[in-house]
Input
Amino acid sequence: MSTSYRLVQWNTHKKVYDLLVGLAIVLFVSVLVGVSIMTSPPGESASPPIVLMRALGVCAIVLLHIILAIGPLARLSPRFAPLLYNRRHLGVAFFLVAAMHFVVAIGFYGGFGVTNPLLALLSGRYRNADTFGIPFEFYGFAAFVIFFLMAATSHDFWLHNLGPRAWKWLHMLVYIAYALVVMHVAFGVMQGQTSLTIALIVTAGALTICALHLVAGFRQVVREPKAFVGEGWVDAGVLSDIPDTRARVVRTHNNQEIAVFRRGDTAHAVTNRCIHQGGPLGEGQVIDGCVTCPWHGYQFDAGTGCSPPPFTDRVRTYDVRIENGRVLVNPEPKSKGSHEH
Amino acid sequence: MSTDERIYVGYLPMSGRLRTFTLIAVSALLLAGLVASGIVAYTLRRSGTGQWDTSQPVTLSGVARLRPYPHLETLDGPVLLAEPGKHGAQGRTANIDGHEVMVTGTTLMRGTLRALEITEVSAPSGERVGPTSIELGADEITLLGEILDSKCYLGAMKPGDGPTHKACAILCLRGGIAPLFVGETEAGEVIVAVLCSPDGSPVSEEIIAFAGETVRVRGRIGTFGSLQVFAVAPGALPAAGD
Ligand code: FES
Output
């Protein structure tokens, strides 16, 4: 909704969010370092850089789980929306923690030697058949490269320049990166342990993430109404069945999703896809006469589809009419969205 | 959230109920994460009893030996020598092999095995003491254990063994740090010995590549001066052991 790019469009929520995330990370790493040192018999504690590297690694993995859980949680209940709102900042914070883990690991394990530190780590296990001959560090490194790309393109500038589709695809790579992180742990620290605890915790984490995604996906499929398919004007059902200021989503014969909003006795129809990141406008609300996206709060006039000035964004709108209390929508767009010509 | 409530919009103030819910959700996530990681930190395998006393340099005197790996024969037994970082002391010991010297450095120690990270070596004194030769037992035995770099194992890096340390171990060994074999005989006797070739020369790169793994190795136990060694023929590659 920006007319120009600012580094971050700050507001109170984002500031509080970032402050809490920062504090939580510091608390987390300190607790882990403390626990590691205090629970070791005297003289048997790990070297300080290794204690720090482990704490950063564990903290990064916990953050990654939280980041991956927020999406499905927010789909399961709108009450998680405040966590979703600023997930990108959480993502960047995660990246910074992972980067510190990376730097300490490369420096301490790969440094001080006869070869380049990165090469020293990545070529370590070439002859070993039981892990496909791939050093466990490689999985971590590959994941890190993906996270780097994501963090580097996290700003809306890239979203607009890559286009929402390409951007979303790039950011879906997080699931591949997550799998790489699990392998990094499974072929690395897990191999050297005598107890199964770490294996169990990692498995529990992965199962939780999978289960949340499956449940949220399943609920979405089951919940979607979109029964009103047909040629010509589409029947969106009885107006009074739609809660005031909220929407019902219908799907047209050519597979477009249209969000039909009720405002008292009238109805408005706009596309269900937000032009920002494709958020589900139909789960939003009409606030101050504007359809408001539930993801980042972009607003579009319910009648014209235009963002209020000074913003210049626009979403598709559709004609509606009300007959015998039922809302009918014309699947031919009345006006086009920002990037359509 | 009931539908008469406003949806959440980031730049508008949150409702009281939503704020409470968010607070609870965030605390729950944080707590779950902390507990899980606390358990991880607690259960991680112990890091070994190696100690590196960097606070006080010590000076030891003895006969410097280049082979199989740089060490100092002192009256209290052998002391392995290493340079700072992941580098062996071959460069500095080459010229003083067999001579009485004073070596200053910081002590790394685990059990009875010691090493010095050198800061200074005195000029050699006295006559060259005749070369020590390797003496090996007659029978080949198989040991199950791990090839490690002595510097990390003795306390420079904790933990200095296992798969996560493999890349570092290889880096140290390629840099010339003395390799150790830490393992058990079939009878269960624990052996900590410097790994070398049967002629008393360093081990090959092929053998170094197995560092950090649990392996079965055939070779002969013996001594090189006062240093306990495990001699492995260059072609006798370790086998995976589990
Ligand atoms: S997707 Fe970001 S505001 Fe709609």
Remarks:
- Chain A has two domains: 12-223, 234-335.
